[in-house]
Amino acid sequence: MDGKDEKPVEQDKLAEALGNLFINVSAMVKAELQGTNNQLELLEKMNLKVAEEYKEFGDVASGLRVFVEQLKSKSGSFDEYVQQIDAIEQQIAEFEAVISMLDKYVSLLETKVRSVYKNPPA
């Protein structure tokens, strides 16, 4: 065989090997890019889901704010009643003090009356 004949065969094998190398590298890069693309799509879906949940939280917070405002306005109307209850509690405390004093006075009078009955004046 001629040395010239071997050279084109070797070049063909080298060209084929290089072609396969480029095809395989291309497939690997394509797979890597597809993996990255899949991750980005997943991240996008997760972001949309989180945004949806935060919107729901915002709606709940807004509803709670309205509810709190309603409670504040209702509790304002109870302030008058609370003041009346406080005044009644103060009066009850004063009455209890008076009753306690009267109870002690009555007890003292009972003791004096018993003393008089036991030792009648002559």
The radius of gyration computed from the alpha-carbon positions, rounded to a whole number of angstroms, is: 50 Å
- Quickly give the structural class: mainly alpha
Low-confidence segments: none
| Topology, number of strands | 0
Describe the structure.
Belongs to the BLOC1S2 family. With 122 residues, the chain is mainly α. Helices cover 95% and strands 0% of the residues. The longest helix is centred in the middle third of the chain and has 116 residues, at 3-118. It is rod-shaped and about 165 Å long. The mean pLDDT is 88.
Key terms for this structure?
mainly alpha
Give me a quick take on this structure.
This protein is an all-alpha fold. Helices cover 95% and strands 0% of the residues.
Give the topology.
Layout: H1 3-118
InterPro entries: BLOC1_su2 (IPR019269)
Pfam families: BLOC1_2 (PF10046)
Family: Belongs to the BLOC1S2 family.
